[in-house]
Write a structure and sequence with these properties.
The longest helix is centred in the C-terminal third of the chain and has 19 residues. It is globular, with a radius of gyration of 18 Å. Helices cover 54% and strands 13% of the residues. The protein has a five-stranded parallel sheet, sandwiched between helices. α7 packs antiparallel against α8, α8 packs across α9 and α8 packs across α11. It has two domains: 115 residues, Rossmann fold, CATH 3.40.50; 81 residues, Orthogonal Bundle (Arc Repressor Mutant, subunit A), CATH 1.10.10. With 214 residues, the chain is of the alpha/beta class.
Length: 214
């Protein structure tokens, strides 16, 4: 039985590249998050899901990852991004996903998929500048950045908690449980954050993460 891959990307060329390079995979390519939601819920399980960070529509790839990753532990998620900023990479890792730069290198793609069946030992990573500062200092600086962001945009205490938990890498189900609310109420808070800030939830999270450390 062929392995199943869901590609969520609004560029037709990406789908053609994946189909040409991965003939031994069963690939489904969709261009929007709403269709991807339905496929994740009704057509699973999927072995791998690739999400373009910058999707058009109501939510982008980061938000779809934050919303769904924890609900599909059998699936490996990876973000597709053209900029590869440290904050996007860090957010992906917090949510248990990997990332791949666009345009996708076919050789890298094949090698990455191959190692899912036989994962190598993780290579040692050079410490980032933020890591050198110390975990406690980073946490304190981010907490201050979150407070500033929330105050400047008039977020309520609950809305700030939603954003804080998203920054920490929690899924929508985990956030709703932590706040003691239903998913429907959680979505109302997310919409309120968007109304007040003009940004999606994970865009807000990235903005806070990009605040300079004091």
């Amino acid at each position: 039985m062929s392995r199943r891959l869901l590609l969520v990307d609004d560029h037709p060329g990406t789908g053609k590249a994946f189909a040409s390079a991965l003939r031994d995979w069963s690939i489904t390519h969709v261009g929007d998050a709403d269709t991807a939601r339905l496929l994740l819920e009704d057509e699973g399980p999927w072995n791998v899901v690739f999400l373009d960070v910058h999707l058009g529509g109501e939510i982008d790839g980061l938000e779809l990852l934050q919303e769904r990753a924890g609900e599909h532990p059998e699936t490996t998620f990876s973000l597709l991004t053209g900029d590869g900023s440290p904050d996007i990479v860090e957010t992906a890792r917090r949510l248990g996903a990997s990332y791949m730069r666009k345009p996708v290198d076919v050789g890298v793609l094949r090698a990455w998929l191959a190692q899912l069946d036989d994962p190598p030992s993780a290579p040692a990573e050079a410490p980032s500048p933020r890591a050198a500062i110390g975990a406690e200092e980073v946490a304190t600086a981010r907490a201050r950045a979150l407070v500033r962001f929330a105050e400047e945009r008039g977020l309520t205490t609950t809305q700030r908690d939603v954003l804080r938990l998203a920054i920490e890498g929690h899924t929508r189900t985990q956030i709703a449980k932590a706040l003691g609310v239903t998913l429907s109420t959680y979505q109302k808070h997310v919409r309120a954050i968007r109304d007040r800030t003009g940004m999606r939830l994970m865009q807000c999270a990235l903005k806070v993460l990009r605040e300079p450390l004091e």
